[in-house]
Every structure is written in structure tokens, then in C-alpha cells.
Amino acid sequence: MSMILNLPASSPQRGFVPHRWLSAYDASMATHAMMPAYKIIYYGYLSTADKKLYREPLELMYTKYHINQAARATIKVFQEELNWKDMTPQCRERKKRVCQKLWHEETTTVLRLSIYRGVLAILKEYVMVFQGSQTLVHKLHDWQLDLFLACFMKAEYITQLLVTFLADVRKAYITTAVFLQKKLPLASPTLTALSALDTLLKVHSQASIQFMRLSGMLRHLWPVDQDIQRKLVRFNVDLTLPSFKEGESIVEWWGHVFDKPDKYPSLSAMVK
At what angle do helices 106-129 and 137-149 cross, to 10 degrees? Predict the structure, then answer.
């Protein structure tokens, strides 16, 4: 069926693994991509009355995917064969539930999949940060805030949802926000201070403030007579340092600072 519709085929997803909750993202992506194929297949399991009811949407799907008459005939034979199959009561009930989700409750099903695809993508991106090889500790605080704020929807999006579906969505977002607020160190002074290492913020006033706080946390790394605050102020306005572009390695950029131990010895020790 995927070949007829020219869709990227994938194995049917049986749901997510409870102890690997991000597997729900992969399941939702695959299910959403295969929805047209699933609908055409399960059309064969619909009752006679429902087939008449959804005949026009099926024809529109055929037109959308440019399915010719020969392919339609092949699909019709396949759908008729499904009615001849002997099924146990449990199997028949399962097929009925799937038909309910694909045809009778299609709008709600698509909305749920869209929520999973949108929100879980943000969560997965955050989790993948810890599995990469790049040094990104300076971005961690900002990403945590983005992740937390993703639990709140804009009003213009809420009004577009079905009223019966809105209650579940609101509950899911609130539950997730409460959980993240408890688990994520959103107010961590250490992570907030480490964001000063982001060289894109070098000339920002907050960068100097956070650098000062970071230096206070790591005061044991330099001699007592070292005036670190004056060095930080000079560093923040130093135009001789190379420019930094988004996407470049922060380790390589700070390497240029390390190459000047006579200029920023205490700062180099702190960053290392």
C-alpha cells in the first residue's frame, strides 16, 4: 500500500515502551506518515453503512495521491479479501477500535499525533544534548528554559483545538510543566553563571554579572592578590579577540584565550 501511495514505508508501531518514553515520538512520527495507508487498508474493515459514509473521503484520498484506476482495482480486491478473513472476537474488536481512530475520530487522532510530534521533538532535542560530543554546558540553562516554556501554548493555537480535546491537552501540558518545574534545575545559579561562557553574549551586561558570580564560585583557582573582576571587565570589551559565529566550536574559540596566558591567566584557569 505504501508503494501505491508513494509513501516511505515503515513497520506498524505498537506504541511506546514505558521506560523509554521518547519512543512515543518515533511511534507518532511513523504513524502520522503512514496514516493514509492505514486508512485505506482499514476501510476494508468498515461496516457497509460506514463504507457508504466514507466513500467520498476515500475517493478524495485517491485523487490526492494520484492513484490510477488499475491501482484502485487492486486496492478494492484487497479490501474485499479483508471481509472474508475469519477473525476471533478479540481481533474483530481490535480492528473496530482502529477503525474508530482512523475514520470516525480522525481529527482527534491527528491532533494527538501533532501534539506528540511537536512537544516530544523538543524533549528529544534536549535529551540528545547529553549524548553529543560538543561542549554545550553554556547553553544548558537557556535550553532548560525553552523546554519548560514549551509546556505553555499560545492562545491562538488553543482556540483552534476541538473543545472535547482541549481538556486533555490542557491537563497534559500542565502536568508536564509541573513535573519539569520539580525536576529541572531552572533556578540553578551554577548553570546560570556558566551561560556566561557563551561568547555570543560576551558584550551583554548580564554576561559580566554572571562571570562575576562564576568567579566567586571558583575563587580557589587563582591567587589571593589576583584582581579577577578587573580582568573580566577588560575581557568583556576586548575587541582583539576573534569574532564568534553561531555553530562554531566554543572550545576552539576559548582556545584563543588560552593562547594568551599572560593576558587572561585567571580567566583561562577558571574556564578550564
Answer: 160
Cell of residue 199, nine digits: 561568547
Residue-wise pLDDT tens digits, 52-111: 999 999 999 999 999 999 999 999 999 888 877 788 889 989 999 999 999 999 988 888
∠ CA(239), CA(244), CA(248), 5° rounding?
160
Q: What is the DSSP string of 202-259?
A: TTSHHHHHHHHHHHHHTGGGS-TT--HHHHHHHHHT-TTSPP--TTS-HHHHHHHHHT
What DSSP designation does 17 have? B
* CB count in 10 Å sphere of residue 268: 18
Domain residues of the chain, as ranges?
Answer: 2-130, 133-187, 192-271
The model's pTM: 0.58
Give per-residue pLDDT as tens, 128-184: 877 777 777 777 777 777 776 665 544 444 445 556 677 777 787 788 888 888 888
Q: How far apart are CA 254 and CA 241, in angstroms?
A: 10
Residue 65: which residues within 8 A CB-CB, separation 6 or more?
4, 5, 6, 36
